[in-house]
Amino acid sequence: MQELIDTKTAAPLIGITPATLENWRVRGEGPPFHKTPGRTGKVLYDPADIAAWRERRRFTSTAEASAADAY
To answer: Which of 1, 32, 41, 44 has its CA 20 to 30 A from that of 18?
Structure first.
């Protein structure tokens, strides 16, 4: 089992900034995450979840990507 990583480490694995990953999280987009208990708990990502999310976001055409974004 790999160690969980923070937003700052996870974002470059997707090719985005930490701020974008934070925005996606608020909107319910992006890869799944873990949150430690409490109001100020840490947000952590499993690298395996990031890899799986990236694989689901692999397309062969822009039409296919647009259709996926419509859901």
So the answer is: 1
